[in-house]
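The material for today's practical consists of a large collection of protein records. Getting from the letters to the tokens is the skill we practise here. To make this concrete, we reproduce a full record directly below:
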Amino acid sequence: MSQFTIPCVVYRGGTSRGLFFHEKNLPHNEEIRKRIFLKSVGSEDVSHVDGLGGGTSHTSKVVIIDKSDRPGIDILYTFVQLGIGTDTVDYEGTCGNLMAAVGAFAVDEELVHVDPSASEIVITAWSTNVHKKIRINVPLENGLAKVNGDFHISGIKSSGSKYKVDIIDPGGGKTGETLPLGKIGTESVNGISFRYSFLDIVNPFVFVTAEDFSLNGSESNDEVTRSGSVLPSLELIRELVAVKSKLAPSVELARTTYTAIPKIAYVAPPQDYMTSNGKLIRREEIDIIARMISMNKMHRTFAVSGLFNLAAACLLKGTIPYEASTLDKNINEGIVRIGHPEGIAEIHVRKKTCSDLVETVGLERTVRRLMDGRIFVPN
């Protein structure tokens, strides 16, 4: 037989799309798993034409779900980021968008008990990637995860039912500390010194200022890409900080192997700008502007894990996002409105009183189950 098959479900969660597998259906052999994921997404081709990926970092994702025997935890959630034109299979980070779909999968695949008459269920998941507890409020309809509704999110044209995701004690999942390198650091690229803040909240992120790259934050993704010098400089800073934070053993391996984390983004104070679909965002509607880079490309919107990190950083005094945002500098809890290329994301953050520790970060998403069946993998 030239190909074998394995059960697979495809979900859109927020502005990401991923292939979902039951842990029980996957082989234990890591090399065979790697082949399944790479061939399912089509990672070896930049276009992902030979798989179900979409040629972008937010559509080259895999999620593995298993029932949990841990007290207070319903399911175990493992995220895998696949390469674009490479054979990268990275388990280091996580995906905030697909966390909402994790809850839908648990309901639809009968991994949790559902009261047929209930309108909502709260599912508790454990991220095996960042070792954090996630609370997912899943709306229900006829005992299944609800799809239709009137809730809108930036980056998705159609409305849907509202899913709420909260991460509990989100700091230090990969390095053990929220601010392992302090609040501000510096790195030199081509003789020019750049300030950065490195925060390990949900997914580790490096934040720099748009001004240091002669940007104001309102530029389109295409404009930044065409500049030629910005993306390579940002990538080098990312690689250097990856080594300094011990997330990668060397710059070379940060470039070739440890590509999923940390990610990097630049931020700027609020100003008027046009979204990629031509909508005007007024400065008074947002608290900060941010643009992120993922897998050496400008992200179409902004990864939810990064939104979590950035929103929390806006409450942590002395960091670059704190300096750039126009939030009340003394609040410990609130909604952070982040302007990204396709609109505004609103993230709820609660900081622990009198400390640089974050208690919870959360947001609301929509989810849709797109297909299920058996995916074919070449022998």
In short: The CA atoms of residues 101 and 263 lie 22 Å apart.
